[in-house]
Amino acid sequence: MKVQHIQHLYQRLGFGIVPNQLVQITNKDRHQIVDELFYKSSSMTNLSIDTTDLDHYTSETVIGNKKKLFEFRDKSKEKLKAYNLAWIERLINTNEALRERMTLFWANHFVCRDENVFHMVQYNNILREYALGDFGDFVKAISKEPSMLKYLNNKQNRKQKPNENFARELMELFMLGESHYSEEDIKESARAFTGYNNNFEGEFVFRRMHHDYGFKTFFGSTGRYNGDDIIDIILEQKQCARFICKKIYSYFVNETIDDAKVEELTSIFYKDYNIEKLMRHIFMSDWFYQQEHIGAKIKSPIEFLVGICRTVPVTFESSMDVLKIQKLLGQMLLNPPNVAGWKGGKNWIDSNTIMIRLKLPSILLANARISTKEKGEFEDAFEAYITKKRKNKFVNVTVDWETFEKQFADYSINELQELLLLPKLSEGTKTYLKTLSKSSKQEYCVQLMSLPEYQMC
Amino acid sequence: MDRRHFLKQSTLASSLFFVPNFIKAFESLPSHTLGFKRLVVIQLSGGNDGLNTIIPFNNDDYYRNRPTIGISKSDVLRASDDLGFHKSLLPLKKLFDQGHLTIINNVGYPNPNRSHFRATDIWQTASNSNQYWQTGWIGRYLDEYGNKPFNALEIDDSLSLALKGHKTNGIAVKNPYVLFKTSQDPYFKNVLNHYQDEHLSEHNLGYLYKTMITAESSAKYIFEKHKTAVSKQDYPSNEFAKQMKTTAKLIASNIETKVFYSSLDGFDTHAGQLNSQARLLKTYAETMEAFVNDLKQQGTFNDTLIVTFSEFGRRVKQNAANGTDHGAASNVFIIGNQLKTPGFYNNLASLSDLDDNGDLKYTIDFRSIYATILDKWLAVDDETILNTSFQKLNFI
């Protein structure tokens, strides 16, 4: 397989490939490489953090005790920061690259946010568990997760007073897309999801007293439907497969949609809604490797950050630093803007985020401060301020250049560019690269990462 | 890496600084096409419950539909025989009494959408509910009548669709100093020095380069303007007040910004609405009072129009969680010193004749408000920007 094609594959389904990994597989063919990637992700490693100090918060101690509940909420928020860091570290270090990549994709599909760390960890691992599984089972599992029941108010959805929030987003954002259902469909399906609830321990609880056992008419058929029935009826709509395939195509292949390719994927996915089969088809297709798709996407903030840290291992000393970076780049894991998630693509880029992106490699790897820390009033001479050497670092990290040097030992400094930049370079950029000093691989690496071209994958 | 080496290199580079033609053209555009009037747009994000904001305290349907969250008569700040303010809105009521506030009731559009995402898109793009537009109404205003990104500023970390045009985007600036300092980075300038026109033709990569160019020159301009301005007004201490203070300072600086955009989030009150809405309305009203005082002190209130909207109102009937679900039409506030119809612009729609979802029916299309502002306040051709002709209103 061509080196560039391997890089493209690893960028899109993982988070890039390191040189010594690349060396090992260049003589294999596409079938072998793709097979191996799926094989590595056939296992699943739950992502958890130590929460034993919160174990004494149970339904017995917390329910009805507001003080205790607030206490739990505060501690839980702190734990979520640690969980955010653990997730980032997982993305950097994982061997189950495809599974983690899919998990990240689904986290921006079944968008959810919760302050309860137990429920959120459980939710996150549900995404991981079903990431390559059966889409129908996936949706049904999501519909019963405590975090989702809270996020879209389905806990408050009762026979006496239906709450449509979940039913609406189920169709608009999770399964069909805008305008492929009626307001009546929403009302009727909301009734089917009544009575869904959960306990503090995170188990699904079905409250029969609150469930509407009456007839519902949904997409033209009538029955005493429950939530799972509604999901099954939606799965029968080919639009559901099309909606998911379009999103997958946009995320994994190209934001410029090729309708014929989406239809090709739809006909495969519609057969059994098996996510793994769908993904395998994409990565085995010749069209996935066409030049127009390579380096054509703008990296998400997380792809960008994780990519840097995979090339040059970085250890963060504080989870706060990692959160700060994510916030400035415009994507904080576990903290989506709303149920529609991040729009992605060009939407990642504005005047503010482009500047921070170009500066981040030097901040992380070269101890450069970034201009985002406020200094109070700014009457004093600005020039003096920027040239003054300051000791307080923007982030506290330990950079493992030794591993980097080992990784790149078999490559010359001139080859770094091909390993780090995927898009075709313009003459201007080539001229710029010539002006850069090539005395050290480390320095050159940071310079390459500071180019707009490095923002592409 | 050796930081000294980098600094040295960047000094060398900046002495050879070559300004690409694209920037030159951009810098030399005249500013005389812009007038002096400014617009401030505020979104109450999440869908504010208009009925508990301006309360129909003599309406039996209101209390029947809201047995536990209806605001009792004695708590209402009466403004007419039928309508009154939520008690958190006392500062706003004062503006109302001074003739600085017009309340337009039942603002919406045909076939209302009840998803936050989509409803916000509709309000920001000014599309019909069955249209999907990639540009915002202020972005298209920039396309036609602005020529610099800072002609429209969003006081936030990130830019909304409202300020994105076909060829011109506004700029998000929460703190002008921070933005400027970031834009002056040596790396950034180095890369720009080697920028070439061929980059522009590339789809996504070209977009990155374009954004860099506009960011650099705009950040500098905004910072230099902001630096000169002073605000003596005290503001409440919260994020929203900070946004409005930055807006006031920028207005005082005589910056060439026609539109300022900011938002206050948290209005999605599906559960336990009473406390959270009271807190948010208080934040809004106290901040607006400070902001208007600030403008008055600067002498810019006369030329500033402030519009507050929410992506939708909420269902007339409350839900079981002492909250309200997503609704449709709601009220819009216009604050200014040149209002033709201070007070209530129109009556509240019927609470018994609701749409199929049990929501208020709209009587005024929100794009009529946009059209009026574009035509009468910003003095531009509203039809070009909105792509359709909407009936103008009479509030300014």
List the helices and strands and how they pair.
The complex is a heterodimer of chains A (457) and B (396).
Chain A: H1 3-13, H2 19-25, H3 30-40, H4 59-62, H5 66-93, H6 97-107, H7 117-130, H8 135-143, H9 146-151, H10 165-175, H11 183-192, E1 196-198, E2 204-206, E3 216-218, E4 221-223, H12 227-236, H13 238-252, H14 259-272, H15 275-284, H16 301-311, E5 314-316, H17 319-329, H18 351-366, H19 382-387, E6 397-399, H20 401-407, H21 416-420, H22 427-435, H23 441-449
Antiparallel strand pairs in A: 1-2, 3-4, 5-6
Chain B: H1 3-15, H2 21-27, E1 38-45, E2 54-56, H3 60-65, E3 77-78, E4 83-85, H4 90-97, E5 101-108, H5 116-125, H6 137-145, E6 152-154, E7 171-172, H7 176-183, H8 186-193, H9 197-200, H10 203-228, H11 239-252, E8 259-265, H12 273-298, E9 304-310, E10 330-335, E11 343-344, E12 364-365, H13 366-377, H14 382-386
Parallel strand pairs in B: 1-8, 1-9, 5-11, 5-12, 6-7, 6-8
Antiparallel strand pairs in B: 2-4, 3-4, 5-10, 9-10
Helix pairs in contact in B: 1-8, 4-12, 7-10, 11-12
Report on the structure:
The complex is a heterodimer of chains A (457) and B (396). By secondary structure, chain A is mainly alpha-helical. Helix content of chain A is 54%, strand content 4%. Chain A has 23 helices and 6 strands. Chain A has helices at residues 3-13, 19-25, 30-40, 59-62, 66-93, 97-107, 117-130, 135-143, 146-151, 165-175, 183-192, 227-236, 238-252, 259-272, 275-284, 301-311, 319-329, 351-366, 382-387, 401-407, 416-420, 427-435, 441-449, and strands at 196-198, 204-206, 216-218, 221-223, 314-316, 397-399. In chain A, the strands form 3 sheets. Chain A has a two-stranded antiparallel ribbon with strand order 1-2. A two-stranded antiparallel sheet of chain A has the order 3-4. A two-stranded antiparallel sheet of chain A has the order 5-6. In chain A, helix 6 (97-107) packs across helix 7 (117-130), helix 7 (117-130) runs antiparallel to helix 8 (135-143) and helix 8 (135-143) runs antiparallel to helix 12 (227-236). The model of chain A is unreliable at 369-392 (pLDDT under 50). In chain B, 39% of the residues lie in helices and 13% in strands. Chain B is built from 14 helices and 12 strands. Chain B has one domain (38-176, 235-350, 360-386): Alkaline Phosphatase, subunit A. In chain B, 54% of the residues are buried. Residues 1-35 of chain B have low confidence and may be disordered. In chain B, helix 1 (3-15) crosses helix 8 and helix 4 (90-97) packs across helix 12 (273-298). Chain B has helices spanning 3-15, 21-27, 60-65, 90-97, 116-125, 137-145, 176-183, 186-193, 197-200, 203-228, 239-252, 273-298, 366-377, 382-386, and strands at residues 38-45, 54-56, 77-78, 83-85, 101-108, 152-154, 171-172, 259-265, 304-310, 330-335, 343-344, 364-365. Chains A and B meet through helix 10, helix 18, helix 22 and helix 23 of A and helix 1, helix 5, strand 7, helix 7 and helix 8 of B.
